[in-house]
Design a protein that fits this description.
Distance between the termini of chain B: 40 Å
Number of domains of chain B: 2
CATH architecture of the largest domain in chain B: Up-down Bundle
Number of strands of chain A: 10
CATH topology of the largest domain in chain B: A middle domain of Talin 1
Largest interface: A-B, 45 and 48 residues
Largest sheet of chain A: 6 strands, antiparallel
Structural class of chain A: alpha+beta
Oligomer: heterodimer
CATH class of the largest domain in chain B: Mainly Alpha
CATH superfamily of the largest domain in chain B: M75 peptidase, HXXE motif
Number of helices of chain B: 12
């Protein structure tokens, strides 16, 4: 046993030395050390990039979507008090500020104590990590005296078309969305926040996203979802501040001033019948979506970024973009101008033990001014041709508070 | 959590000719040049009409006499052809039919023309030799030739494919008629308050629907009324009306209360479906992708046990999905034997593999008289084996569309 511990210790020491020598701006084993090597690095590699933690809005919403996601839903454990939750949010703020700046949450140095940081991100570039938190409707029940602070718009989503929800993949008192271009860094963030919260919160469910499915900035290429189609072509882009204010950021309209500058996060775990989809012939796949599979252009013509012409007739006299095409039914034109900021990721849960088929699809995340926006859109999708190939198995809604300035903590507005 | 579920399938549409729903006279629809896509009877009819109007229509006169039915002219170019049939005084002859040259198939006809009456039919007709036939005349068969370039979809000039399509139409009509009659039997048991009988009759009626489902789904609302499941696409209690609502009453709520009215409504919807399918028109691409859809259904909704979640009668309806798909394969067999015999061999081989796994789950008389064991008793390992066989089968079926479309 003693021998084993010595070996582990030696290994940790070596890892730390390697990072220091490389000076690549990754996480360092000692939390005291980060600034010097980072500053000494001659030119920051792509992975070194950080996203400012402090600001009017939380990062991870308007931030150009990173490639990877770790999303944790957590519940406050029975017996925890309002003070416990408040203190946890303070600790989380500090930890998130560190991790997003490329620092560990604590030292990996004391031989006779478990390392304060779990350590798996040591040496990994921060890779634009953002940590975004949100409060679920259940946080405002009678446990913590928060009922008077509950926003009227924050409620469990009503039953919606094409869903068969698994309670084990739904809801939660709190959520942590960690996004990074490095999956390990994103996972590390959720893991360490949960660890900090042990005794106050416990995991409800956790989802990893392995490929972004949305573009949230004009600087980004449009990625593809597991259907093989470009996704997010018509998404709101962070640069469109007018649209962000109109559709994404909570403003004066809310009944809870603490939420102004925040946003509502709707998460939906959407399982795809991947094998069935793969058997559909190309033209039908395109009719289901309403776009060309290869170049992403709407079926009404043009290029990827051409506006879809929903009235344009096809060769057969019917609309070129079919009446039940996904892009038609999901469009703001079809929904009285309703728009949301999508920020989803592809996920897989492996293989269905009963069928031997892949379990995976889209872990849909969207931000909006009011969850009613999502409700309206999903209701419109009742007749979506895509419903043959997808269904919703998980659902959650969270109110994400606004960003914090240095010295402020998450929860400040909520508990004072 | 309920087992994972998926939506029902839906009618496909696109630039390729898909299922057409022609509300025009059945005769004219037989060879209508453009089997346009449609999600409703009205629009299908209008596009068929529009397509016919695009080309100049040639008129052929046929005068029924005791001697025969000579078409004038006896040769036309391909396209829309209007056959005007008149009987001035031939007592022994009352009809004219246009048939394929081997006379095996009637393409269009005008019957019941007693002396003094006239009528006709219009077809979009492809190049080739045909026969005008008038039973009872001295010379019953008259050669009719169509020259020029093929019009409309390519498949319409391939006799093996037109024959497959017409066979499919017959299969759909027959199964829909059987659906109605077997549902009526099911309803009678409910009306008589006989729960046990009703439970036996339920799966017997279900199988007919599960063979023709991709066609029934062309009429989405009707499909929902007949086969909708609670969570999708119904979600509104008052709209949950069909088979599965009755299934829930019988097996889960263990009551017949309210079942009679629901069952009568179900029959009414099925009768409406019967009317619609009788004037529907199909094409090979849609048949092929429909067969894949059927087996996809088996792979997802049946294996998971979600479709018949209250009754656990998933196995006979799974078998029905496979049967409906194999009917399509069987109809395409003469064509595939020439076009792609190795695909045909593979599909048959995969189907045999499915049959083999299913055979292990057979029982006599079986659960609720279905010939199969109760699905809830099928172990995960068996389900996985069945799923593997079905998925492999579906994968090969999905290769049909490019061969026939």
């Amino acid at each position: 046993m003693a021998l084993s511990r010595r070996r582990l210790l030696t290994g940790a020491g070596l890892a730390g030395a390697g990072v220091a020598a490389g000076g690549a701006g990754g996480y360092l084993a000692s939390s005291a050390a980060p600034t010097a090597p980072a500053a000494a690095a001659p030119a920051a590699a792509v992975g070194d990039a950080t996203v400012p933690f402090f600001g009017a809005h939380q990062a991870g919403i308007a931030t150009p979507a990173q490639d990877r996601l770790a999303f944790g839903s957590l519940n406050v454990v029975p017996g925890a008090s309002q003070a416990d939750v408040r203190d946890l949010l303070v600790e989380w703020t500090q930890a998130a500020a560190k991790m997003t700046a490329g620092q560990l949450v604590g030292d990996v140095a004391e031989p006779n104590a478990p390392p304060l940081d779990t350590g798996e991100a040591v040496g990994s570039p921060v890779s634009r990590l953002t940590v975004t938190i949100g409060y679920g409707p259940s946080l405002f029940d009678d446990r913590f005296g928060l009922a008077p602070r509950k926003p009227a718009a924050l409620a469990v989503l009503p039953p919606l078309p094409n869903e068969n929800l698994d309670p084990a993949a739904s809801g939660g008192d709190l959520c942590v969305q960690a996004c990074s271009d490095d999956p390990l860094v994103a996972f590390h963030a959720v893991r360490n926040l949960a660890r900090i919260g042990m005794g106050v919160v416990e995991h409800n469910w956790l989802e990893l996203g392995f490929g972004r499915t949305s573009t949230t900035s004009t600087a980004q290429q449009t990625p593809r979802n597991l259907l093989g189609f470009k996704d997010g072509t018509r998404n709101i882009k962070a640069e469109q501040t007018g649209l962000m204010n109109a559709h994404v950021w909570v403003g004066q309209e809310t009944d809870q001033p603490w939420l102004r500058g925040g946003s509502y996060l709707v998460a939906r775990k959407i399982q795809m019948h991947i094998e069935n989809w793969d058997r559909d012939y190309l033209q039908d796949q395109e009719n289901v979506i309403g776009r060309s599979k290869v170049n992403g252009a709407p079926l009404s013509g043009g290029t990827e970024f051409s506006e879809p012409d929903f009235a344009a007739p096809g060769a057969d006299g019917q609309p070129a973009i079919p009446v039940d095409a996904h892009v038609r039914l999901a469009s703001f034109e079809h929904n009285g101008g309703t728009r949301i900021l999508r920020r989803g990721y592809s996920y897989t849960d492996g293989v269905d033990p009963q069928t031997g088929t892949l379990v995976g699809g889209l872990f849909f995340i969207a931000f909006m001014k009011n969850p009613s926006q999502f409700i309206k859109l999903q209701t419109s999708l009742a007749t979506d041709a895509l419903n043959e190939y997808v269904h919703h198995v998980g659902s959650a809604v969270f109110a994400c508070p606004p960003g914090v300035s240095p010295g402020q903590r998450w929860g400040d507005g909520l508990f004072t | 959590m309920e087992p994972p579920m998926s939506n029902s399938t839906r009618a496909r549409r696109g630039k390729l000719p898909l299922v057409a729903v022609a509300a025009v006279a059945a005769l004219a629809a037989v060879l209508a040049g453009c089997s346009s896509s449609s999600s409703g009877a009205g629009s299908g009819a209008s596009s068929a009409t529009a397509a016919a109007a695009e080309d100049k229509t040639t008129t052929v006169s046929i005068s029924l006499t005791s001697q025969g039915c000579q078409p004038k002219p006896a040769s036309v170019t391909a396209g829309s052809v209007e056959f005007d049939v008149a009987n001035s005084d031939a007592a022994a002859v009352s009809e004219a039919e246009l048939r394929t040259s081997d006379k095996s198939k009637i393409l269009g006809e005008q019957e019941n023309l007693t002396p003094g009456l006239s009528g006709g039919f219009t077809l979009t007709i492809q190049p080739g030799k045909y026969v005008v036939n008038c039973p009872g005349a001295a010379q019953q068969d008259w050669t009719f030739t169509v020259t020029g370039k093929a019009t409309g979809a390519d498949w319409q000039s391939v006799p093996q494919l037109t024959s497959a399509v017409s066979g499919y139409s017959g299969y759909i009509n027959q199964n829909t008629a059987d659906l109605v009659s077997h549902t009526q039997t099911f309803c009678k048991a409910i009306d008589a308050g006989n729960m046990e009988q009703a439970k036996l009759r339920y799966p017997q009626a279900r199988v007919y629907y599960e063979r023709i489902e991709p066609v029934a789904e062309i009429w989405g609302t009707l499909d929902t009324s007949i086969d909708g499941r609670w969570e999708n696409p119904v979600t509104v209690a008052s709209q949950f009306t069909g088979f599965h609502k009755l299934e829930q009453l019988l097996w889960s709520d263990n009551t017949l209360k309210g079942a009679s009215a629901l069952c009568a409504g179900l029959v009414q919807n099925e009768q409406q479906l019967l009317t619609l399918v009788k004037s529907a028109q199909y094409n090979p691409l849609e048949m092929a992708s429909g067969s894949t859809d059927l087996v996809n259904e088996a792979a997802t909704n049946k294996i998971s046990g979600e479709e018949e979640r209250y009754s656990n009668t998933d196995l006979p309806v799974l078998q029905a999905n496979v049967d409906g798909a194999m009917e399509v394969v069987s109809l395409f067999t003469p064509y595939l034997q020439q076009k792609d015999p190795s695909l045909l061999t593979t599909i048959n081989k995969q189907n045999a593999a499915v049959t083999k796994v299913l055979a292990k789950l057979k029982a006599s008389p079986g659960y609720d008289g279905t010939g199969y064991v109760e699905y809830s008793t099928v172990l995960d390992a068996q389900r996985k084996q069945l799923s593997g066989a079905i998925n492999a089968f579906a994968e090969d079926l999905s290769k049909l569309s490019v061969q026939v479309g």
